[in-house]
Amino acid sequence: MSTPDRPRIRRLPEALANKIAAGEVVERPASVLKELVENSLDAGASRIDVKVMGGGRDLVEVVDDGVGMDPGDALLCLERHATSKLPDEAALFAIRTLGFRGEALPSIAAVSRLTLLTRTADALEGTRVEIEGGRVVSQGAAGAPVGTSIRVADLFFNVPARRKFLRRPQTEMGHLSEALVRIALAYPKVGFTLEHEGRRLLSSPGSDDLRERIAAALGREVHPHLHPVDDGRGEIRVHGYVAAPAVTKTSTRGLHLFVNGRFVRDRQLHHAITRAYEGLVDRGRSPVVVLFVDLPPEEVDVNVHPQKHEVRFAEGRRVYEAVASAVGRTLAAAPWLGGERKRYALAREDEGEAPKDAYAEHRARVLAALDRYGRRPTSEQAPLPGGWGRTGAVPIRAEGPAVPSRPDGPSPLAALEALPPPDEGPSGYFGSLRVIGQLRASYILCEGEDGLVVIDQHAAHERLEFERLRALWAEQQVVSQPLLVPQVLELPLGQAQALEAHAERLAGLGFDLSSLGGGSVAVRAVPTALAHRDIVAVIDELVGDLTDVDSDAAFREAVDRLLATVACHSVVRAGDRLSLAECEALLARMDPIPFRANCPHGRPVAFALESRELERRFQRR
Ligand code: ADP
Ligand code: MG
Q: Among all ligands shown, which has an atom nearest to the Cα of 104?
């Protein structure tokens, strides 16, 4: 029997080793940008200009006015493990720079066409190096301003498998701007610009004002809601800004956490922040926070993650406590309440006007929502004015008498009461329940075939409304209403990009949006059902994570989240008293809709206490 040839071990050529290393460091154009900009900051730049073409697939160029490199370094910096940031081994355990591995430039150069142009202040001329797929193709003296400019063209041109994985330019651009914004937040003194395809997306001059930088980076809307944090515990200093609980996000994207100037994602510290906000923001929402934790570099290990997104603390518990207490202290002072209370008091005294009755407002909303169930077109009737579409299609039969709207009717579900039950043959599960009554104006108690059934009235109604809206959207029946005065939103750059990328799909939802450059987005029309809602909040809800949405399926999910929110705000709530007939009308409409077991947010709609369980409790068996 012959043994097959044993593969021999061989040392990888440097170019191949770099290509492999690039797999870890260079995930997408945004990671190239991050590495280049971090290098510029380490080089002491006071101004950094970024130009991008084709979402970074074609070009990422970073120009800085930092210290530059001499001809020797300009070549050396492209070699593996070549860094000026670790003078000795001890330095690794007290990192004060953003870089230290000497890996970024050779990795990027291995998978792109890279041009480096650099000059130090004391040199008469600069150096230019061109490298293709890790091979130096030209080098020599060249005229250059002091500082460094690095152009990275045709990313992954020699790694087709990776290039295939790049998303559409707008999507990549969303990631790029997000990456730049994160860095810019930590360096308010450095001026930044960002251009895509010749269009200026961000321009933020360097200043001492972090608050200004936050507004430039995250959107003007947050500016008035920011409250300073500045607190220390021993050697740990925690400072920055937290936004009032009214400003929230659907994801943790609003959490900007920096440890010694480095953006990190840290589950523990995110938890410390959200814990401080507990009870102030709804579940599933996340606050907007820009927080800096500074501590002696010996106390942090940044050498944990190839892209350095994670760190390890020598004493994690102490850092956690410091963050929780710093944020908690600012929130406990509830600075945003002071302002609102004052305004409220003024309105009463000066104008002799009663403050707006939130409950009355809510009631009006509920009635309006119910109206949309109640009124629906019969064959002769004109299409519904208002509402998300022309037909109240889902839970209600197509024919039958129209119920007049009763804006001051006696109860929120009054309109349902008069409706004939759906004619789906024998009534289904919910329709077959006998309503016993209402508990705490929140739960409908029913007798079912096999015991007691408790229904959450809000969750149930929400599910109904959600399915109705979704059907209208699917049928492209959404009616759009132009705004009298187009509204201009100032959004974080990444979100503006995401909106622009999805403009066409959003048009199908009834939104007419267009980018005005930078983070400015003009809203010219919205779905009719949203015409009277806070547009900013709605858009925020919608773009929460649109940056990652690239497929139709992902977009549908994002739309579902939006519809769920709209539904949630337009239906009966816990605390609304319902008559028996209203309860019955609600249940009767539950049967024809799909997935009725949960509300669109995933909470259960109903639960059953079986007769057998009751008997057990009363020791009848
Ligand atoms: P690291 O940042 O980990 O040191 P890099 O591969 O990113 O590794 O960069 C290698 C070296 O090149 C840096 O240590 C620095 O000396 C030099 N360098 C890179 N970019 C710049 C720049 N924009 N200005 C000045 N020097 C730079
Ligand atoms: Mg670096």
A: 1
- Per-residue pLDDT, 260: 93
Q: Which contacts (CB < 8 Å, 24+ apart) does range 119-123 have?
A: 119/68, 119/144, 119/145, 119/146, 119/147, 120/67, 120/68, 120/69, 120/70, 120/146, 121/67, 121/68, 121/146, 123/68, 123/70
Q: How far apart are CA 138 and CA 170, in angstroms?
A: 33
More confident residue, 554 or 352: 554
Q: Are 579 and 411 in contact (CB under 8 A)?
A: yes
Number of the ligand closest to the Cα of 37: 1
Ligand 1: residues with CB < 6 A are 35, 39-40, 43, 64, 66-69, 77, 82-85, 99-105, 148
Q: Does residue 397 surpass a pLDDT of 50?
A: no
Q: From ligand 2's centre to the CA of 181, what distance in Å?
A: 18
* Cα 544 to ligand 2 centre (Å): 31
Which residue has its alpha carbon closest to ligand 1 atom 20?
39
pLDDT, tens only, 27-58: 899 999 999 999 999 999 999 999 999 999 99
Q: Which atom of ligand 1 lies nearest, measured to the CA of 86?
A: 4
Token pair recorded at residue 400: 């039958």
Answer yes or no: is pLDDT of 331 > 90. no
User: Which helix (H) or strand (E) element contains residue 92?
Assistant: none
Pocket test for ligand 1, best of 34, 37, 83 (most atoms within 8 A of CB): 83
Lowest average pLDDT, out of 143-147, 178-182, 576-580, goes to 576-580
